[in-house]
Sequence to fold (846 residues):
Amino acid sequence: MSYPNYRLPLQGLRVIDMTVVWAGPFSTVLLSDMGAEVIRVESLEHPDYNTRGPAIVPPGGAGGPGGYPDDVPGDQPWNRCAGFTSTGRNKKSVTMDLTRPAGQAAFIRLAQACDVFIENNSAGVVDRLGISWDVLSKANPRLVMISMSGFGQTGPYRDYRAFGANMEAIVGHTLLRGYPDRDPTDTTPVFFADAAGGSVGAFAILAALRHRNKTGKGQFIDMAQAENVGHFLSPAVMDYAMNGRVQGTLGNRHPAWAPQGVYRCTGDDDWLAITVRDDAEWTALCGAMHRPDLASDPEYAGNLERQRHHDAIDEIIGAWTADKSRGTLFRQLQDAGVPAAPVHRIGDVPNDEHLLARGMWQQVTLPEAGTHTYLRPTARHMSRTPLEIWESAPNMGADNEYVYKQVMGFSDAEYQAMVDAGHVGTEYTVVRKAREEASRA
Amino acid sequence: MTTALEGLRVIDLTHYIAGPFCTKLMADYGADVIKVERPDGGDPARRVGPFQGDDPHLEKSGLFLHLNTNKRSVTLNLKSVAGRDILLRLVKDADILVESFSPGVMERLGLGYDVLSAVNPGLVMTSISNFGTTGPYRDYKLSELLLYALGGSMYATGTPDREPVKLGVDVEQFFCGAVSATATLGAHLGATVDGMGQHLDLALFEMQVGNQDRAVQAHVSYQYTKNEPKRAAPGSGRSLMPTGIYPTADGYVHFMTLNTGYWDRVCTMIERPDLINDPYFIKRENFFGNAEVKMEFEGVLYEWLLQRTKLEVMEASQAVGYPCGALKSMADVFEDPHLQARGYFVDVDHPVVGRLRFPGAPFHMSETPWRAGRAPLLGEHTTEVLESLGFSGEDIAQLRTGGAL
Fold:
């Protein structure tokens, strides 16, 4: 793997990435996929279970997302966890301890050499580390900095600790999903706020860079991920704004179209999703079910009538799909003009013929995790600059020498001093000490 | 104050949700977005509810009103020779064109990327479609439900005794719009370096497969382990740590942690510091994965929860640093003290619907403001835009009679 001979859209752009968990790393992978040099700043002193995986300290440590190759954390679990490697592509990693003055000084030198600084720690963390916007903007007036906290840099929830799921609860998403006939305690935790914040965060950076390119002036961006999610809930927000109506969950049904739902097929827990938006699609569905009588039945004419009889229609469709395969019905219904799709298991997706035909997958070898198939960048179909995985997710500290010397301009002696002081390394201090103790014992 | 995207010229041939959200992000931060709409009814989202007063009307769709703020609306019949010619003149001076027609439509209109790039080599053209411009599903239909189903995350959303269930409203289509905006602006910044534009072929299906809402991690994890996420019983976490949705006296809260080291915070929150070092609960085999012990502890927890409101629980939880959010209804959200303190919601006037409250800036830029603005009436800016291209009032009247506008 190596970078291509064409010039990538964001080539030449340098990004300091001090992001954790999911939202921030998603922002930076959108940038690194387009050729920005994204440099993750990590600390040997602070095992980041939420980003580098739960098994950093044997035998288990904290819980967390993602699996390990063959379910084995291995000697360097932080370099093997899917939670990290899934969005680590095309990035670099450098280590420094920002709780010590030498680490802070190094960070400021890095900020002078970079265009962007992105972080999504709790509000106040960068201030405590002495790398606030005030400090950094003086060191580099061209810098663009974005802080993507849950609730922003001001206001009563400023210091609230929150994952995506908590933010979504507070801005109303959680009560808009789940089963209408079940208690909300049955609603599955999801982390949509991370997807929403990550994608819009990357957009925010690019908008600020355009302004910087025109004026030479950097700026600070305050993103409250919870506020960002408000836009994604627009139909429910606007219904309240216009009509004072508090929407609840409709489960799988649609507010205007009918029928819509998932229907059981043959196989263990196989489902087919169907959406009928108008009479033409309803007629086509009835044709596929060999029930032309339903298409001409006035009880089912128009979305309003079909919504009224949704339960009955669901029973008819469910009885028809029950002894058929979802794959066959998917193609049959789509070919007849009816929106339908299988509810994919994660394991179905690698075999999906459309994604295979469009080249979604790429074999990549990671130094610790071995060779596996990964998703290519989702926006990869750029006609002049197709996007790929050019560099595998970095081992922690893999780019220390390059970043300190080539990017920050450290001399050999300065670099060695950082190594000796324990800023630079590839293994968490707590792990190193545990291993030293074990070998003594 | 100037805006971040001031002077960025965007031609918007999108409709419904993903495309309009992509160009809304640009318009709200200052881009000049010219929304080209069909003369007979415009963007079909104008016919999608919720409507003000439940009155279906082209200017009263809340969805449209939110997704098209700060854009200018021009009606053009792209099937007419004159309409197509006007579009090409708009493209000549544009930086970006975003379209969300079915694959092949732009080519049939004589507006494929080869034609547009010949007119303007620096143009970034973004095509947002269900499945992309190639591949066996190219012409297949999609909906929010189908999109979530295909991406792989829906299968594990819900409880084991029930069907998989989607997320709220149309969130995944908004997500695809946000990814599209990022890719498009990135490609534009690249084009400003060498003057060379390009064509982006973005598929909703692929953006959903790459969604950071669990999908990306799950796909890679599957390659590593062949383990698939399944629908799980609520609260079936492997430790005593409260994770998921819990009842309170007047509603619900969502607790979330990945850190079992927060046990002392939980005990402090429920005012039971004696449990922090309770040998029974912290015994490894009791703390992790013992359903009976978990029920025992939750008895203590529920008793505390049910004596407090959701807001009291959220505040107590946050006071000890334990991640928690109260489940708020949209009415609660509009009254939320944090959002009010930050001035999140904005009131905007509109000639047909009057003053309406909208979600405010998704992010605040210290130097370049977000713009509160309204959506255009259908064709509101047709004359203004054509005049800027040099058409006279007489020309415009003729184009109208000829059916081009």
Notes: Chain B has two domains: 9-213+343-401, 244-327.
